[in-house]
Design goal:
The protein is α+β, with helices and mostly antiparallel strands. The chain is built from 16 helices and 24 strands. It has two domains: about 260 residues, ATPase, nucleotide binding domain (Nucleotidyltransferase, domain 5), CATH 3.30.420.40; about 150 residues, ATPase, nucleotide binding domain (Nucleotidyltransferase, domain 5), CATH 3.30.420. It has a seven-stranded mixed β-sheet, with helices on both faces. A six-stranded mixed β-sheet has the order 3-2-1-6-15-14, sandwiched between helices. The chain has a three-stranded antiparallel β-sheet with strand order 4-5-8. It is globular.
């Protein structure tokens, strides 16, 4: 049977998607299943790994049935994943040892503080590195010491989850991000691996040597032997029959973190190209080419992908709450019944209302990196109402994205003429137009809204031989929003946002 399709699994914060792409890279069919968000009274956020794996299998079954295709028409599989969410499972059985700690969760803050304050560094041991363990970590991994990343989350699991403690003692412990967990389960334990994009986000991977850093691992109490093999994003990982659902096993040929997958799926393959993914949180990412850009302004440097034995670097800023702000409006505040209502309400709001929402529900990410910050609605007047609050919530998303892009421009001296965007909130025209206005740049939407999955599909298809880079990036169809706000108004609004953030930080 002719192999017509590439299958992509996009395992995200809110749910799991199974998506089918044809030989031209067009989306043929999609199914998705949500999973529970486990949030306790302390604000800790967890996921049930068994639920995620079961949903992955079921989403693929639902896709095959919905698309009406034969299973043996699928050539290969690519996986994209929520990146920093951290898992621990048994090497022997593959069963989870604790709920996964979601990337938003800051429960490991004390571990970061402990390392920052208690790890002593010989000031003369390495030229150019000063300031203690936190600075060594930043120089080696490209990231500021933070509970946002898996290193501290792994350490927390080892110190607080009894089953994880026991497994570590008996050398039965696997630690990994969701891509690694899915690879392990889908291959029946035959593949224990990750790709460069995901490894570089753990805060345990040295982006200079391209290896797990034994010194940093030791600080977090992590045995390097319990970490996965790191491979190219486009290569043969193994194969799966989806728990016997397929008669013939499908090769897994691509793995990439969701934000890097979106960068690749958007066609941002040249240095200086920038994209923003609007999801539960957001990643703003610039292709930095084959050289590391060391940020002094609050951004992180990591790896975009590995292909053909070579790596590409990125400069990135991460935001905790963007699309999740809309969820907060609906589920917690009861101001809307569906996300689609926000566009109309924002358009109807008083345009002169100067209310700002700073959504620091679990701290502020880049470029502020303050995990103790708390959310605030600032600048309300007597006439501020529901519509104005909704407007402020949408605009907070655009302001946070602009913060990151402005930092990138200052860091690398680039001019961002166009911001490529993807993710569910990009369907909101009020948000996209305001984003273009407050950034002062064109905002460009891709031909396929599932950019993360498309990037994973492209990685798999390139390895398998279905796609070439030339064929998949020649016909990128885009819708564009052009800025029209007066420069004086843009400056005034952005200064108001920075003032509101300053109130939160202080």
């Amino acid at each position: 049977m002719d192999k017509k399709y590439v299958l992509a699994i996009d395992q995200s914060t809110q749910g799991t998607k199974a998506i089918l792409f044809d030989r031209t890279g067009d989306l043929v069919c999609r199914t998705d299943l949500a999973h529970k968000q486990l949030i306790n009274e302390k604000g800790w956020v967890s996921h049930d790994l068994n639920e995620i794996y079961a949903n992955t299998i079921q989403a693929v079954k639902n896709l095959i049935e919905k698309a009406g295709i034969q299973k043996d028409e699928i050539a290969c599989l690519g996986i994209s994943n929520q990146r920093e969410t951290s898992a621990a499972w048994s090497r022997e059985s593959g069963k989870p040892l604790a709920p996964a700690i979601v990337w938003q969760c800051a429960r490991a803050e004390d571990i970061c503080e402990r390392i920052k304050n208690n790890v002593m560094i010989d000031p003369g041991r390495e030229a150019g590195i000063h300031g203690g363990a936190a600075e060594v970590i930043r120089m080696k991994t490209g990231m500021r010491l933070s509970p946002y990343f898996p290193a501290a989350k792994y350490a927390w699991l080892q110190e607080n989850a009894e089953a994880v403690k026991t497994a570590k003692k008996s050398h039965d412990l696997c630690l990994g991000t969701i891509d690694t967990y899915l690879l392990y389960r889908l291959t029946g334990g035959a593949v224990y691996a990750t790709d460069y994009s995901n490894a570089s986000r753990t805060q345990l991977f040295n982006i200079h040597t391209l290896q797990w850093d034994e010194e940093i691992c030791a600080w977090f109490g992590i045995d390097v032997s319990m970490l996965p093999e790191v491979k190219d994003s486009s290569c043969l990982y193994g194969e799966t029959d989806f728990e016997g659902y397929f008669d013939e096993a499908v090769p897994i040929c691509g793995v990439i973190g969701d934000s890097q997958g979106a960068l690749f799926g958007q066609g941002c393959i040249e240095k200086g190209m920038v994209k923003a993914t609007y999801g539960t949180g957001s990643s703003v990412m610039m292709n930095a080419g084959d050289k590391i850009i060391e940020s002094d302004l609050g951004l992180v440097t990591s790896l975009a992908w590995g292909m053909n034995g070579k790596v590409t670097y990125v400069l990135e800023g991460n935001i905790n709450y963007t699309g999740a702000v809309i969820t907060w409006l609906k589920d917690d505040m009861g101001l809307i019944t569906s996300p689609g209502e926000t566009q109309e309400l924002a358009n109807e709001a008083n345009k002169k209302d100067a209310t700002y929402l700073v959504p620091a529900f679990s701290g502020l990410g880049a470029p502020y990196w303050n995990s103790n910050a708390r959310a605030m609605i600032y600048g309300m007047s007597r006439t501020t109402g529901k519509k104005e609050i909704v407007k402020a919530a949408l605009e907070s998303i655009a302001y946070q994205i602009t913060d990151i892009v402005e930092m990138m421009k200052a860091e690398d001296g680039i001019t961002v003429k166009e911001l490529c965007v993807d993710g569910g909130p990009t369907g909101n025209q009020y948000l996209m137009k305001f984003q273009s206005d407050i950034l002062g740049s064109t905002v460009s939407l891709p031909r396929c809204e599932e950019s993360s999955a498309l990037g994973a599909g492209f990685m798999a298809g390139l390895c398998y031989g279905i796609y070439t880079q030339e064929s998949i990036f020649t016909q990128v169809k885009r819708n564009r929003f052009i800025p029209s706000m007066a420069p004086e108004e843009r400056i005034q609004k952005y200064l108001g946002w920075k003032n509101a953030v300053e109130k939160v930080l202080n």
